[in-house]
């Protein structure tokens, strides 16, 4: 058996791009001088490139320009109990993730500001960020905009597709219920 099996792997850009647009916050992974670095960065599309920004105090910033990266976009996960099905199953985890590999190039301040305005437009229907907002001029000195040229991508959508249609449908609802329940539980216990 190859990893991941074909029925859990998604290579169709027409399915990958909307997934990234729905779940734009990625784990960005780099390697530099035998150390692994990770950050959580939101991305938007500009043609066939991803645009993001990073705080210049982030240690990952110092080696990022011209670096190769891997991004992991997370769409959720759930433990799937055999008790939920009539068939003989083993416990498993189902999940939806997209992996993207590419090369980073820093962009100038004008492109950074455009990407911040565009990101806000795409993610927020209640707030309009104006190019002349006074905080942008102050903020741009502390962050660096960058683009990622895409080299490869694939989705890992493990949702019991190898089972019956009814099993698949139930597994999808378990993922949704589990995400909501765990998030409520986490938020309820979170205090500052």
TrEMBL record:
The record's annotation in InterPro entries points to: Split_barrel_FMN-bd, TR_PAI2-type
Q: Which domain of life is it from?
A: Bacteria
Please provide an example of a Pfam family that matches this protein in its UniProt record. FMN_bind_2
Put simply, this protein is called: FMN-binding negative transcriptional regulator
**Source species, please?**
Psychroflexus longus
